[in-house]
Inverse folding.
C-alpha cells in the first residue's frame, strides 16, 4: 500500500520519510546510527531510540519490515535512492522517527509523550496528544509552513473521549504527519544524518532556533496524509 501511494504521487520527485529501520546489517547488538544519535546532544538534550538487529527483527516479525517497504517502493520506482545524501536527488527514501523530529523542531516542548505506554495513565497520554497537536499549529510560522493543521486533526477537541483503538489510529496519523513534514523540511534545509548509507542511517530536521519563525515561503497544506506543495510531495 505504501509503495502504491508513493508511486501515485512521486513522479515529479519526493522524499519519503519512513519511521522504521531501513538498513539492518548487524546480526546482533545495535546499529551504529542508533548509538550515534543517542550520544549526540540535540538542543542540549538526548534522545532514546529503539535499537535493533537482524536477528531481533526476524525473530519478532519474520522480516525486516522497513527493508521490505524499501524493496516494494524501488520495484515500482527504481529511481528512488535509499540515502542520507539529499544533494541533487529527486527521489529519496530516508529513515527518520517522530521522537527525533519533535526534539529537532520543538526543543522547548520536548519530551512530548503522546505514545501509549503500559506504565502511563491513558488520560495523561491523551493530554500529551492534545499538546502535540497544539504544537503543530506553530508550523504556520515555519519554513516551509503548514496552514491547515486544525482541518487535518479536526477531532483534537474530542481526544479525551477516544477509546484506545481509535486513539492508536490518531497516534499513527500524527507519526505519519511528522515524518512527512520532516521530509518536506529536509527538502528545504540541511538536516542531521547519523550513520551512513552502508550500515544504516537516521535523518532528522534540526531547526536553527534563531530563524524558525519564517512563514513567508510557499503555502503548504495537508491532504490525505501527505504534504502537498508545488514541486515536492512527501
Amino acid at each position: 500500500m505504501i509503495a502504491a501511494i508513493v508511486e501515485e504521487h512521486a513522479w515529479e520527485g519526493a522524499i519519503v520519510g519512513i519511521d522504521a529501520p531501513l538498513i539492518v546489517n548487524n546480526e546482533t547488538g545495535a546499529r551504529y546510527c542508533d548509538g550515534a544519535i543517542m550520544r549526540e546532544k540535540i538542543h542540549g538534550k538526548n534522545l532514546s531510540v529503539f535499537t535493533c538487529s537482524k536477528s531481533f527483527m526476524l525473530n519478532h516479525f519474520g522480516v525486516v519490515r522497513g527493508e521490505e517497504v524499501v524493496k516494494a517502493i524501488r520495484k515500482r520506482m527504481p529511481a528512488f535512492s535509499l540515502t542520507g545524501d539529499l544533494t541533487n536527488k529527486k527521489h529519496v527514501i530516508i529513515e527518520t522517527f517522530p521522537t527525533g523530529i519533535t526534539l529537532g523542531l520543538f526543543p522547548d516542548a520536548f519530551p512530548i509523550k503522546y505514545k501509549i505506554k503500559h506504565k502511563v495513565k491513558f488520560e495523561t497520554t491523551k493530554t500529551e496528544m492534545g499538546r502535540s497537536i497544539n504544537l503543530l499549529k506553530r508550523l504556520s510560522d515555519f519554513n516551509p509552513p503548514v496552514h491547515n493543521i486544525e482541518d487535518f486533526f479536526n477531532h483534537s477537541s474530542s481526544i479525551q473521549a477516544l477509546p484506545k483503538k481509535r486513539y492508536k489510529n490518531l497516534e499513527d496519523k500524527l507519526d505519519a504527519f511528522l515524518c512527512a513534514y520532516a521530509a518536506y523540511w529536509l527538502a528545504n534545509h540541511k538536516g542531521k544524518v547519523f550513520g551512513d548509507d552502508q550500515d544504516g542511517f537516521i535523518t532528522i530536521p534540526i531547526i536553527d532556533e534563531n530563524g524558525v519563525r519564517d512563514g513567508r515561503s510557499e503555502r503548504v497544506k495537508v491532504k490525505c496524509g501527505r504534504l502537498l506543495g508545488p514541486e515536492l510531495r512527501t
Remarks:
- The longest helix spans residues 164-188.
- The CA atoms of residues 4 and 13 lie 15 Å apart.
- Confidence is low (pLDDT under 50) at residues 212-234.
- The helical segments are 2-9, 32-39, 54-61, 65-76, 98-105, 122-136, 149-152, 164-188.
